[in-house]
Amino acid sequence: MCLMVWIGTEQPVLPIPCAGPQLGTCYCEVREIAADAPVRARFTSPHVTYVGSHEGCGCGFDSSRFEWEGFTDTADAMALVDAMRDEEREEFLAQKHSREFLAALVSAALLHGTVDIYMCWAGDEDEPPDRVESIEARRLTECLTPLQERVKYTALG
């Protein structure tokens, strides 16, 4: 089962440069969702966009595995990225790039109004959020695990 991430915006999400591992590549998914999609009930904004990480779902925005290894935030992990095994480094950097892409989308959308973010497990789109919180856009890149499932976030600039 995968985590799913949506953002609600006042204007349609505009294309932005991708944060792929190679300049000019994009491996993240961005698509407006259908007007009758159940998750739209979580948003009051006119545009709701699904945002997938390099994995195609929201799982790739989460680097909590590295928290278990003692890293506290992205900067902490970056300081030791060269000491990681090759596969760990590739995984971490792909997740970091995905979070940077999400943060760039949110920051660009904030220029046009309110941005809400909602993440839940696939199949839980009908479930209401457990709570509502504010989140600064920079948290999306600073934290290894910036979002929690079934929390509706209102992004701040």
Number of separate helices: 4
Radius of gyration: 15 Å
- List SSEs in N-to-C order: EEEHHHEEHE
The count of DSSP E runs of length 2 or more, i.e. the number of strands, is 6
- What class would the helix/strand composition place it in? alpha+beta
Helix content: 25-40%
Distance between the termini: 31 Å
Give me the side-by-side strand order of the main sheet.
Answer: 2-3-1-4-6-5
What is the arithmetic mean of pLDDT?
A: 89
- Molecular shape: globular
Largest sheet: 6 strands, mixed
Uncertain regions: pLDDT < 50 for 5+ in a row?
Answer: none
Indicate the proportion of strand residues: 15-25%
Structural description of this entry:
The chain is of the alpha+beta class. The chain is 25% helix and 23% strand. It is built from four helices and six strands; from the N terminus they run E-E-E-H-H-H-E-E-H-E. Strands 2-3-1-4-6-5 form a six-stranded mixed β-sheet, covered by helices on one side. Strand 5, helix 4 and strand 6 form a beta-alpha-beta unit. The longest helix is centred in the middle third of the chain and has 25 residues. The radius of gyration is 15 Å and the shape is globular. It starts with a strand and ends with a strand. The model has no long low-confidence stretch (mean pLDDT 89).
